[in-house]
């Protein structure tokens, strides 16, 4: 067989006698998407070069040349002047090959004691570590919008629902703060995920470590990793941290989808609870009167692709033997799209919630239907020493009567209410009022005004410290 000409050879092509087929090059190329890891690849290479020089594996002059060349390449990429070459497959080879062309043989020493297997793992960890921090900031902005609105509507009462049926009155602030708590758990999950991302993989090499005298702890210090990975086989094959990030991101998007669903419902004429800013809605191409909640609908719709990416990553990993397999190239596009989708959704949700307006008159009207203080009447009877199960049955009969009369249970007279329980007295009407119902819910975590005021203050304090 005819040996490849040197200029056509891949950087790994010494043992190959034929040029890579064009179709294979197109199929295996990843630089068109992994180029977004250029900063992280260069940061890892800088640290690796400094370690090689410190260990005497390259000279100080060679290290200086490498660092200067990497700076130059980074500048070219940021200015849009760098030409990514598909035949060089990925971001790693594009940078390394260009470096060697710029500075000569010193550039060819950069890959000493590392493999693309541990290199890409490092790049991805550096990238996801940043994204955890950025998403945390976006979640905090959404929390601020929610808390600001909670304070604005801290005395506004709205129907609370179970099974999408009117259940009990709650403060609008309490409802908004439920999403604050979801975001809080999302931030906690990201922080926990970040701890497992924040482990240095570089030094695992291809799968077995290296026989060269490297200093992994030194590199970890340069790149701000608190620990190094413990098993080289596990290190290069590990994508648990990717899946964990995808799972945390999917749950963020699911929470946003639930919020979006409520906004879609609440803006409908059937509910008419809230008004969205015009800037976040669109119209119809045929119906002039329409104001469509397209942003919430798209946030809700995009949850499918984020959840789908998580499923794709789980499926990708489930059948892979140790150690590295090229299948793992398929982990990046789902994550990149997940990051982009969740980031955009969070940013828009924060803006949207900041401009939301509750229609308080409509909320008040809705509270007058549905016998929403029936549970309060049952609690009233319990305080009169009626066993709860008997109280439940008594109130159920009273509700049935009020529905027959076409009135809310709070509109029944004392005489009518006493038909069902003689222990009911005049003080029952304070219990049956919407305000009385809300203010009575002062158990920890409840919708009572004092508890909600505490929750708002606590949330504001949490946000002020980070």
Give a short overview.
By secondary structure, this protein is mostly helical.
Question: How is this structure best described in words?
Answer:
It is a single chain. This protein is mainly alpha-helical and 466 residues long. The chain has helices spanning 22-28, 31-34, 38-54, 60-78, 91-103, 105-108, 116-152, 172-197, 216-222, 232-237, 240-267, 294-318, 332-354, 360-367, 374-383, 388-405, 414-418, 428-432, 434-439, 449-464, and strands at residues 157-162, 165-171, 199-200, 227-228, 274-275, 357-358. A two-stranded antiparallel ribbon has the order 1-2. Strands 3-4 form a two-stranded parallel sheet. Strand 1 (157-162) and strand 2 (165-171) form a beta hairpin. Helix 12 packs antiparallel against helix 13 (332-354). The model is unreliable at 1-7 (pLDDT under 50).
Structural class: mainly alpha
The biggest beta sheet, please? Answer: 2 strands, antiparallel
Count of runs of 4 or more consecutive helical residues: 20
Give the overall shape, derived from the CA principal axes: elongated
**Beta-strand fraction estimate:** under 5%
Spatial order of the strands forming the largest sheet = 1-2
Low-confidence stretches: 1-7
Q: First CA to last CA: what distance? A: 64 Å
Number of strands: 6
Helix content: 55-70%
From the alpha carbons, calculate the radius of gyration and give it in angstroms: 31 Å
- The secondary-structure element order is HHHHHHHEEHEHEHHEHHEHHHHHHH
For the residues shown, what is the average pLDDT? Answer: 94
